[in-house]
Amino acid sequence: ADYSALQYTRAVIQETMRLYPPVWSLIRIAKEADVIAGKEINPGDRIVLFGYGAHHNPKFWKDPETFLPERWMDKTHKQVKYSYLPFGAGKRSCIGGAMSQVENTLALSILLRRFRPEYVGLQPPGINATVTLTPRGGLLFRVRELS
User: Fold this and answer.
1) Would you kindly state where each structural domain of the chain is located, as residue ranges?
2) Model pTM?
3) Which of 11, 21, 37, 39 would be a feasible disulfide site paired with 86, CB 3.0-4.6 Å?
4) Cβ neighbours, 10 Å, residue 140
């Protein structure tokens, strides 16, 4: 009933999307000349924004390979602009990104009230990077209903 009370659940969703962003890279076309890291950019050049790399960069994230939902609840942490890009950023970001986070948080909280998922894969899944990131080979779970 109260979405704002689901802070930890929301943090789990945000951390999951940091580690495995649905949009792992974006391509943009430069409107004007610029220089990025010493490389000249000309109008019309295609530029790849590597969100997955930013999400795993220790320059932006402490222990970037560790799943730490608590990092999203730390009010003292100053997030670097454009270091979190699961739905892009700026005026061309995904129009449904914020709604997706609300829906995912609510859906997870509702499911976990009734079920307990247990990962039964033999090893962590690989990553299949196509248009979006998906787990290579799928995710093998056993789902148990709570009594």
Assistant:
1) 3-114
2) 0.88
3) 21
4) 12
